[in-house]
Amino acid sequence: MSDMSVHAAVHGAPTSFIRKYVFSLDHKIIGLQYYALALVAVVTGMVLSWIMRVHLVWPNAPIPGLGALAKVGAPGGVVTPEYYLQLMTMHGTLMVFFVLTNAPFAAFGNYFLPIQIGAEDMAFPRFNMMSFWTTFVAFCILISAFFVGDGPPLSGWTGYAPLSAVGKDAGPGQGIGQSLWGISIFVFCIASLLGSLNFIATTLDLRTKGMTLSRMPIVTWAWFITSCIALLAFAVLMPACLLLILDRVTGTSFFIPAGLNVGDHIQPHQGGSPLLWQHLFWFFGHPEVYIAILPAIGIVSHILICNMRKNMLSHRVLIYCMMAIGFLSYMVWGHHMFLSGMNPFSALVFSFPTLMITIPATIMTLIWLGSLYGSNLRINSASLFCLGFISMFVSGGVSGFFLAQPSIDIYLHATYFVVGHFHMVMGVAAIMGVFAGTYFWFPKMTGRMMNETLGRWHFFLTLIGTYAIFMPFHYLGLAGNVRRYSAFQDDFLVPLIPVHKFITYAALFTGAAQLIFIANLVYSRFKGPQASPNPWECTSLEWSTPSSPPPFDNFGGQHPVVHHDPYQYGVKSSTGDYIMQTSPGPGAAS
Amino acid sequence: MGGKIFAVLIVIIALASAVPIMNHTFLGASVTLPEDISTHGKAIDDQLSVTMKEAGISFLAAQLVLGLFVWQFANRKGATKTFPGGATAMVIVAFLFVGAEVLALGMVGSKAWGMVYFKPAASDALPVQAQAGQFAFYFRYPGPDGKFGQIHPDKIDEGNSNFFGLDPENDIPARDDITAGELVVPVGKEVNLMMHAKDVGHSFYVRELRIQQDFVPGLDLSVHFTATKIGKYEIVCTQLCGLGHYNMKSYLNVMSQEDFDKWLKSQSN
Q: According to DSSP H, which parts of A269-357 are helical?
């Protein structure tokens, strides 16, 4: 902070409550708004998964209170088969779009990317506000599907056509709820495009003096790379959703071929292709996995470096690996479609780049493990969640090795093996990154510390619980347990029900353990001990702001000047074993 | 303290998770996978076993090393050390080992894939048409003339058992077509299954047969296989198709050639 130049702010301090907390231009408030929205979405999504898990193993058990909320879908609180699929669709959509895209990328990225590069705000603060509120509108549209006549959509978060396109003839859950799903995702795409453009412009144009690209923290790089991926991915999903809506509402036939007899009605369509939807959807869908996981990779690496008190073996190689993964993510979408009837030769073409992703992923894992060697690893809630992330990333990653091979996919496709794989690698691992970020940055965002004991309990129970839920999914998959079934009646599925019971208990347990986190979050926000300006002794710019939370322009009317690479640890300085990026004078030899 | 707990816990989790992997690897696929009743299935099972070994070893090694390093270095004081070889060693190891693994598995695996998809069905394979609709499978045999009648979606009438929408009055090849609710095939004879979706997307999955293939509306797809063991096996739908998806099933009934001929004859009467 000793070396700062004075600048005028891009926008003035907010003067009213509405401009400060509701329609705020401040990237920090917008980040918190994204976080709050993700929190509401994740609680909703988790409750849905509880209902699903209970229904799977006790199909006739009434769920308290559900009968009043869903009179058609769950008469007397007993979930119908179609309502199970509707809850499943909503669970997937909420989690993928409104939690895994919002929390690690939009929430933390909004809050910390501008600060970490020494900017006062995003490049386009009004666009930023619009991104959040557009996302909020998308959320409301999706949730409103619970309350329309025919109930929420039923086609899964992948919305495969023609089931999702032909309308009510295809059965319950294909009425207005399915249209609302398409509209919601379309609106979400607009918000994500605005947001990622903003991230890219901010990173390229608003870096403070001395903040070269190579001096950006690894997590800033992760958000930047993610923005580039998101820009291309959502730009394809958006028109796909538009075409789906047109098929449903105006009678076009983009995804519907001729001669379909659905619900005893010949469909008035011809010339469309269900595979077109699959190609467009997965061209977005696979990069989306990395939109969820790359920010978590960045967050975890950033926090681990600080807690190891030494740099990664090479943080540049980590960044190159993230770029490689981002690049490869556009060549692999067909691995979701091995059995879709596309040309069987193309399966091999999609399989190789998929398998190749293992190489950068392995390099990253080896660098994390190799960096832990010889470190002074500080154990706290944040660093524990980082370690949990590494473990989960490995566990979820190795199962990808099976599914990347078309021959094995013939057997494992559409089984619980797939469900276990993506829940571990993109769900739990990314959420572990979000938890790590929350425990780490909470002092900066609120000026208070979170309770460490509760944090550790939360971590250990979550680690045990998530493994207990998702590891057995793989074994169910190996036994051929088909996914997206609302009941297990087939001869070969009935013997697997005890495993499902175990998973349901584990899910209820793990969900309950999250109450510890919520309690910690609320309690610490108001009653947590005051945080020192830099409690973790971290070097990057977010810890150089004049206060916690930082003032509306982040650095109190000044622009920091950067003198060093981001991670100067294990050196002798006046502050201890680290040198802030803003400290003038020589850094470590690295 | 937290570091040591983590280290112990992650080792326990890794070992517990690995028990079924070990079972699969060392006691043979039959422990977790259903019996294979196809001519091509062994190649898939072998590929799965090799992958299980490699993935299992990678999984265990990574988790155990993670536990070990956290145990050793948590809350340690003093000068930090660098792992021998540094990042360069990691990159080289990953490229050599994983690269070799990727190439090897990719090459060998493509053979198993090719057995199902690159070779066309033999010219004397038994032609059977499968139709998937919400929420049932129907199968059709061409009858003595060896020709299938035309499908007319508007003539589908389930009440009168006209599941395929045939028009026997005007379409001569349709007259002797045999329709069944089960897929009945002779043992040891190649079957060419021609797949047709009536309404939305479905999928054909028989675990024992190591066959799974989507029905895609508007596309004529086919898949071929040879069943090697007499018995009855469940056919299930694996593509979300609506509220009755979980309940959409049929049976693959593998018979001796003699029994099959008898069955076919009884059906045509």
A: 274-308, 315-328, 344-356
Other beta carbons within 10 angstroms of residue B92's beta carbon come to 12
B109 and B66 belong to one structural domain:
yes
pLDDT at A7: 52
* Range(s) of the domain holding residue B9: 2-75+86-117
Rounded to whole angstroms, the Cα distance separating A51 from A66 reads 9
Q: Give tens-digit pLDDT for B50-84.
A: 898 889 899 999 999 999 999 999 999 888 899 98
Residue B59 counted as domain residue = yes
With respect to residue B108, please indicate whether it lies within any of the assigned structural domains.
yes
Let me know whether B93 and B151 are in one domain: no
Same domain, B44 and B140: no
Residues of A with Cβ-Cβ distance to B91 under 8 angstroms: 317, 363
The SS3 call for residue B202 is strand
Is the distance from CB of A129 to CB of A153 less than 8 angstroms? no
Instruction: Say how many domains are in chain B.
Output: 2
SS (H, E, C) A384-418: HHHHHHHHHHHHHHHHHHHHCCHHHHHHHCCEHHH
CATH class of A288-528: mainly alpha
| Length of chain A counted residue by residue | 590
Q: Where would I find the beta strands (DSSP E) of B71-186?
A: 126-133, 136-141, 178-180, 183-186
Q: How far is B220 from chain A (nearest CA, A)?
A: 9
> Is B81 within a domain?
no
Q: What is the ipTM of this complex?
A: 0.95
Sign of the Cα torsion A582, A585, A586, A588 reads negative
Q: Among B97, B216, B221, B250, pick the best mutation site for testing chain A contact (most A Cβ within 10 A).
A: B216
A419 vs A427: CA distance, rounded Å: 10
> Is there a single domain that holds both residue B218 and residue B246?
yes
Same domain, B108 and B132: no
- Mapping DSSP to helix (H, G, I), strand (E, B) and coil, where does residue A579 land? strand
Determine the Cα–Cα distance for residues A426 and A406; give it in Å rounded to an integer. 21
Backbone φ and ψ for B141, nearest 5 degrees, come out as: -115, 145
Rounded CA separation A473/A458 (Å): 23
Is B90 near chain A, with CB under 8 Å? yes
| Ramachandran class of A322: left when φ > 0, alpha when ψ lies in -120 to 50, beta otherwise | alpha
Q: How many helices (H) and strands (E) does chain A have?
A: 18, 6
- Contacts of residue B77 in chain A, CB cutoff 8 Å? 376
Nearest CA in chain B to A472: B17
CA distance B245 to B243: 6
Q: Is the pLDDT confidence value at B30 over 50?
A: no
The structural domains of chain A, with segments of one domain joined by +, span 31-253, 288-528, 539-590
Element spanning B251, H or E: strand B249-255
**B113 with B131, same domain?**
no
Please write the tens of the pLDDT for every residue from A443-480. 999 999 999 999 999 999 999 999 999 999 999 999 99
CATH code (residue B163): 2.60.40.420
Question: Residue A17 — very low, low, confident or very high, per pLDDT cuts 50/70/90?
Answer: confident
Residue A532 has what pLDDT? 94
> Is B49 an interface residue toward A (CB < 8 Å)?
no
Confidence of residue A2 (pLDDT cuts 50, 70, 90): very low
- Check if A31-253 and A288-528 are the same fold: yes
B42 close to A (CB below 8 A): no
Residues B90, B186, single domain; the answer is no
- Which DSSP category does A234 fall into? H
Size of interface A-B (CB pairs under 8 A): 316
* Vertex B258 angle, CA B255 and B264, to 5°: 75
B249 and B144 co-located in one domain? yes
Query: Does residue B105 lie in a domain region?
Result: yes
Fold of A31-253: Cytochrome C Oxidase; Chain A (1.20.210)
The pLDDT mean for chain B works out to 92
